[in-house]
Amino acid sequence: MDAMRILALLLALFLPAYNTLPPVDVAANSPYTVWNAETPTPGNGTTAASQQVALTKNKFGVMAFSVDGKFSAAPGAFEVDVQVAQVDSDTNYQTISNGNITAADSTNNGFHLDVPRENARFARLLLRSRTNAVSITATVSQ
């Protein structure tokens, strides 16, 4: 592992995720934690967004990815949007079809979403709303 990748991983562990780092190549670092026991402010834009990741085509030429999330306790009513963009800029991110996650499993307070095909080069999560003050940990895998 080269020094820059080690530095990026160390920074990701100790800095808040809200787009403070360049996109991480998720295929080389899969699964990649985009929120790590954080309580982002719900809303729009960078304060509600996770660390963004760069997507890579697999050996079949497809950019598929998945998202896993877990709240520290029952989140109440919530919405986490899975967003993608061709260019890594806050205003370019759009929520994917059926990417509005509003339900978590009541036993583990977790969720999972598979995105079997995507053309965009970047992905992130956006916390639109959350009723209870709980933290979230989420990963993106390729």
List the helices and strands and how they pair.
Layout: H1 3-14, E1 24-25, E2 32-38, E3 53-54, E4 63-71, E5 78-85, E6 94-101, E7 110-118, E8 122-130, E9 136-141
Structural commentary:
This protein starts with a helix and ends with a strand. The model is unreliable at 14-18 (pLDDT under 50). The strands form 2 sheets. A 5-stranded mixed β-sheet has the order 1-3-8-5-6, with no helix packed on it. It has a 4-stranded antiparallel β-sheet with strand order 2-9-4-7, with no helix packed on it. By secondary structure, it is mainly β. Helix content is 8%, strand content 42%.
Notable traits:
mainly beta; 142 residues; 42% strand; 5-stranded mixed sheet; 4-stranded antiparallel sheet
In short:
The protein is mainly beta and 142 residues long. The protein has 1 helix and 9 strands; from the N terminus they run H-E-E-E-E-E-E-E-E-E.
Distance between the termini: 19 Å
Shape: globular
The structural class is: mainly beta
Strand content: 35-45%
- Unreliable spans are 14-18
- Helicity range of the residues? under 10%
Overall pLDDT: 87
Number of strands: 9
> Which oligomeric form is depicted?
single chain
Looking across the biggest beta sheet, what order are the strands in? 1-3-8-5-6
Q: How would you spell out the order of helices and strands?
A: HEEEEEEEEE
Number of H/I helices: 1
Q: What characterizes the major β-sheet?
A: 5 strands, mixed
Cα radius of gyration in angstroms: 14 Å
